[in-house]
Design a protein that fits this description.
single chain; 341 residues; alpha/beta; inorganic pyrophosphatase (n-terminal core); Diaminopimelate Epimerase, Chain A, domain 1; 6-stranded parallel β-sheet; 6-stranded mixed β-sheet; 13 helices; globular; binds guanosine-5'-monophosphate; binds manganese (II) ion
């Protein structure tokens, strides 16, 4: 196992060696893939196919409609829809890439299939505390997004390879993971990559419209409900919001409708920690998202209290208790952390 905190020479040299012969590649994003997971896996797929490899993306499950225009997304195999085809692809793969996650638990039911596979696994990821399943890894928590990492990778393997498909995919993931280029991990290098991607054919204005101006009426109704459900923990710069399954059903909820809602908490003056709890009756869980501004680590918080993780300022977790119990656990947890606020 070779680890690297950035894209070092070893990583590139070893990867080049592996790509000298034609490979049958499986590329995996995490469960409930977001813009960065889909953008990075699709860009890598386009690049590998350009270079005469076979490449297929296997997603553990579905993704939101606002991403269903990304070039090449129609070819993605979904394990929840097509388990047989997925199994065959994994069994015949000669190389596996895992993108935008660093623990196999993040791919849900696919985990045992990937664990069983004996082929080399290559991790490209920007989350904290990588696990040790990969034979080769490019892991860098300072990176804005996995898409910026795939940009760096393609740039160093073949800087002429960027076409409009790759550019649109990478632009999308960098944009979504940086909150449209505003989070602290956005660097001059991020903006240089973005400039190059626009030159290479990324339709920047169109991408913003497709992602941010494509809400359904029901999504905005849900936003109304969640904003009126928002509560502040008395005396602390913390808010939380909830959505029950009944509330979701009343607005004809579709996957992705609640994306970004947690950020509204941080738009309140003085609030530095926002949490959203969304009931999922079919999986018997409450899915939680956490966002913070500044020094408070929601990654640590999610790991300590809600079996989750993520980044310093953006993380997620899960509760198997009822909504009422989950709220009580959340309130108790933040009260244990008051010295941090
Ligand atoms: P979101 O709140 O947008 O779902 O996720 C925020 C960040 O936390 C993302 O980087 C995502 O990969 C990570 N994340 C979300 N849920 C979980 C979880 O249950 N476990 C872990 N380890 N990370 C999560
Ligand atoms: Mn990401």
């Amino acid at each position: 196992m070779v680890s690297s905190s950035s894209m070092d020479k070893h990583f590139i040299t070893e990867l080049k060696k592996k790509l000298e012969t034609t490979q049958k590649v499986v590329i995996l994003p995490h469960k409930n893939p977001d813009g960065d997971a889909l953008g990075s896996t699709l860009a890598l797929m386009h690049f590998l196919i350009q270079n005469k490899h076979e490449a297929v993306i296997i997603s553990p499950n579905d993704y939101p409609n606002f991403l269903n225009w990304l070039p090449g997304q129609e070819k993605i195999l979904k394990y929840n829809k097509d388990p047989k085809a997925v199994r065959l692809k994994i069994e015949s793969a000669s190389l596996i890439f895992t993108l935008d996650f660093n623990h196999l638990s993040r791919i849900g039911d696919l985990e045992p299939l990937i664990q069983k596979s004996k082929v080399d696994k290559i991790m490209i990821d920007h989350h904290q505390s990588p696990d040790s399943y990969a034979t080769l890894m490019y892991s860098d928590v300072t990176m804005s997004s996995t898409c910026e990492m795939v940009y760096n990778l393609i740039e160093s393997l073949d800087s002429k390879a960027f076409n409009s498909e790759i550019a649109n995919c990478l632009y999308t993931g960098i944009m979504t993971d940086t909150g449209s280029f505003r989070y602290p991990a956005t660097t001059p290098a991020t903006h240089k990559a973005i400039a190059h991607l626009i030159e290479a054919g990324a339709s920047n204005t169109e991408i913003h419209q497709k992602i941010y101006d494509s809400s359904s009426f029901s999504r905005l109704k849900l936003l109304g409900i969640i904003l009126s459900n928002m509560k502040q923990i008395p005396g602390l710069p913390i808010v939380y919001m909830t959505l029950s399954q009944d509330e979701l059903n009343s607005c004809d909820y579709k996957k992705g409708d609640t994306e970004g809602f947690v950020n509204y908490g941080l738009s309140l003056e003085g609030i530095i920690f926002s949490c959203i709890m969304i009931e999922n009756e079919s999986e018997s869980i409450i899915k939680m998202s956490f966002r913070s501004q500044g020094g408070f680590s929601v990654n640590d918080f999610a790991r300590s209290y809600f079996s989750g993780g993520g980044h310093h300022n953006a993380a997620g977790g899960v509760s198997t208790d009822s909504m009422a119990t989950t709220i009580a656990r959340f309130e108790k947890a933040v009260l244990e952390q008051t010295d941090k606020f």
